User: Which sequence fits this backbone?
């Protein structure tokens, strides 16, 4: 039975992953286990506490996850058998993530405890318009998150590793190419005639790609987490894609101050 304290590092672009991570955290809290929810994008990987179990939660992007998430895991120090688990949320398919993440953590000395992929509403391209369908999909996802937490607690969770194909897909996803091409295709722009200079996009950006001058300005290292686009209160940030209604599974403040007891849809 897992009783060790846990540090769960979470990144969530638009809230799906945060909801799932909070569900896991709530389960462990209810079992009396000390669990902290930490913002992955603000955490220093070199400063992790190796006496606490490591949890990672992040969204799937380009069938893998964001380069800054990989950089965080790559920068973790070597440990001696600390337990680790991961959960990701996705709209449909991730090919190059679960096995390669297990391999990387094992190479750092972690003991893989389990991985779980949770289907949630898409926050990009095919955003669901039907609120009822969206709500049902989230409820199903959160149920899966709770079962995963239970399985982790009782040592029943699995972390599959399929050989060859995921490693190849992972190599493609983790190269700079798909990200450069997405940056070019999406071309995020700020409409200064709409912008109210609230600074929220600047505060939320996980990669410090937004600088705040008189108006916010985009730099050149966006990783397309789509946070700024979806949380701008006046929809002043747009891309060259056909615009969809904003997708937000939580409030902006929940992303800045994750708290399992306070975060709800
Ligand atoms: C740039 C980008 C790429 C994505 N790529 C994938 C993908 O390859 N496969 C998939 O199933 N979902 C993909 N998604 C959908 C998200 O993984 C999914 O909606 C996730 O739950 C969002 O979580 P969040 O709200 O915590 O950011 C992508 C989303 C974005 C923004
Ligand atoms: S979040 Fe929107 S309104 Fe606020 S500073 Fe950014 S672009 Fe302007
Ligand atoms: S600029 Fe916007 S989409 Fe790009 S990484 Fe920052 S918050 Fe995410």
Assistant:
């Amino acid at each position: 039975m897992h009783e060790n304290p846990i540090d769960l590092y979470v990144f969530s672009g638009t809230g799906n992953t945060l909801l799932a991570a909070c569900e896991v955290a709530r389960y462990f809290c209810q079992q009396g286990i000390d669990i902290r929810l930490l913002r992955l994008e603000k955490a220093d990987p070199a400063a992790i506490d190796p006496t606490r179990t490591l949890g990672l939660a992040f969204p799937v992007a380009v069938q893998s996850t964001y380069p800054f998430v990989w950089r965080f895991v790559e920068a973790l120090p070597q440990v001696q058998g600390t337990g680790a688990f991961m959960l990701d949320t996705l709209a449909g398919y991730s090919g190059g993530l679960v096995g390669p993440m297990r391999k990387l953590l094992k190479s750092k000395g972690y003991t893989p405890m389990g991985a779980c992929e949770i289907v949630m509403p898409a926050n990009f391209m095919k955003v669901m318009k039907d609120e009822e369908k969206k709500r049902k999909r989230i409820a199903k996802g959160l149920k899966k998150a709770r079962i995963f937490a239970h399985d982790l607690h009782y040592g029943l969770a699995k972390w599959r590793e399929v050989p060859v194909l995921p490693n190849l897909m992972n190599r493609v996803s983790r190269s700079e190419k798909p990200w450069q091409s997405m940056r070019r295709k999406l071309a995020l722009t700020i409409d200064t005639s709409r912008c109210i200079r609230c600074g929220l996009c600047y505060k939320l950006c996980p990669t410090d790609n937004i600088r705040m001058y008189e108006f916010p300005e985009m730099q050149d290292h966006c990783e397309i987490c789509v946070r700024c686009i979806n949380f701008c209160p006046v929809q002043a940030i747009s891309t060259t894609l056909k615009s969809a209604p904003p997708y937000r599974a939580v409030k902006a403040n929940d992303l800045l101050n994750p708290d399992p007891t306070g975060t709800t849809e």
